[in-house]
């Protein structure tokens, strides 16, 4: 399984997000603790908004097939990126090739998408899934992963208008197709998606045994718990992290996203709701 993290808050150097935490996403690329794989070395990617690329502009992505822990270019680039919203992903391939177009996060217009998990029996159901992607969107598919296919299904089912409903329809469609092909548990996912203003995350699996997902406690509460930690003073009041596994061992710093739920984060606002797939008409 892959590992990922998302950040929303005041603009901050990407280097501080990627490399400084005790159990950073870079450390997780080599020493993951909660996933099915300790090593996530089949490439990496980061995507971000802002940093002078214009209000309303599409996100910028930087991807490589190199292991994240061994990419000096990433370390250099990260010192020059200051962003209010960052996605980072380290990959453990579930069978598709190790190539740049298969590295997360995926991007279409203003939207980004990254995923930990898999669509079971993907090679057997791939044709049916891809044929359901809207024809106007289809040329945007660059790679061969189940993750990108799920992204474009969500776009087809209205991601830009209503992300929770669109993802519920995409997942419901995959489960329906999978089960018609004899796949008992078609979907396993923790997903993050963003339009640059908000982040939506989803934790769901058909077998109700989904990989871990956590969100950070309110920064003001952390400051009260740990007044000696100066690093917390550099984070704005709205700072939030959503991560595959905690970036450190501070008690009270992390909350688990409940099984079978979706959550949203935007400046000054966040919430969690149950997630229920629906089969599109």
UniProtKB/TrEMBL annotation:
<feature type="domain" description="Glutamine amidotransferase type-2">
    <location>
        <begin position="2"/>
        <end position="281"/>
    </location>
</feature>
<dbReference type="InterPro" id="IPR052373">
    <property type="entry name" value="Gamma-glu_amide_hydrolase"/>
</dbReference>
<dbReference type="InterPro" id="IPR017932">
    <property type="entry name" value="GATase_2_dom"/>
</dbReference>
<protein>
    <submittedName>
        <fullName>Glutamine amidotransferase</fullName>
    </submittedName>
</protein>
<dbReference type="InterPro" id="IPR026869">
    <property type="entry name" value="EgtC-like"/>
</dbReference>
<keyword id="KW-0808">Transferase</keyword>
<dbReference type="InterPro" id="IPR029055">
    <property type="entry name" value="Ntn_hydrolases_N"/>
</dbReference>
<dbReference type="Pfam" id="PF13230">
    <property type="entry name" value="GATase_4"/>
</dbReference>
<keyword id="KW-0315">Glutamine amidotransferase</keyword>
<dbReference type="GO" id="GO:0016740">
    <property type="term" value="F:transferase activity"/>
</dbReference>
